[in-house]
Write a structure and sequence with these properties.
The chain is α/β, with parallel strands linked by helices. It has a single domain, classed as Response regulator (Rossmann fold). Helix content is about 40%, strand content about 20%. It is built from 6 helices and 5 strands; from the N terminus they run H-E-H-E-H-E-H-E-H-E-H. The protein has a 5-stranded parallel β-sheet with strand order 2-1-3-4-5, sandwiched between helices. Helix 3 (about 40-50) runs parallel beside helix 4. The radius of gyration is 14 Å and the shape is globular. The two termini are about 20 Å apart.
């Protein structure tokens, strides 16, 4: 199942890795009909993937992007077919050097999105955010 289909509102099992302030991502994916499992840290995420099958994992990048890459590579080793989205705050001229390298040399099955791009994808699938809220 492609990440576009999952993030576009089709039902699927999604794991959110990292902190989802105010549970906005969790609510948006549930509103899109997805079953959401939360993992607050890497070890918890790896344990979930060892015991469950996910259509997609969304890694919320809040800290070190090197840590994010380690998470992505380990998740990819555990389940090569799982789609992975790395959610970043912003992309642009101030983008971290490591993130620029990741964009230039993408990991197969991994997509880097900003919250705004994810919101647009969900919105395009007909799943509008509640008034006053955005992903």
């Amino acid at each position: 199942m492609s990440s576009e289909n999952n993030a576009g509102g089709k039902r699927g099992k999604i794991m959110l890795v990292g902190f989802d302030n105010n549970k906005l991502l969790e609510r948006r994916f549930r509103a899109a009909g997805c079953y959401v499992v939360k993992a607050h840290n890497n070890e918890s995420a790896f344990d979930h993937v060892r015991h469950e099958v996910f259509d997609m994992t969304v890694v919320v990048s809040k800290g070190s992007l090197i840590n994010v890459a380690e998470t992505v590579f380990n998740l990819r080793d555990l389940d090569p077919s799982m789609e992975i989205i790395v959610l970043v705050e912003r992309l642009g001229k101030h983008t971290n050097r490591f993130l620029r390298q990741l964009l230039q040399h993408p990991i197969k099955g991994t997509e880097i999105l900003t919250r705004r791009r994810l919101q647009k994808r969900l919105h395009a699938a007909g799943q509008q955010a509640p008034p006053g809220q955005s992903v």
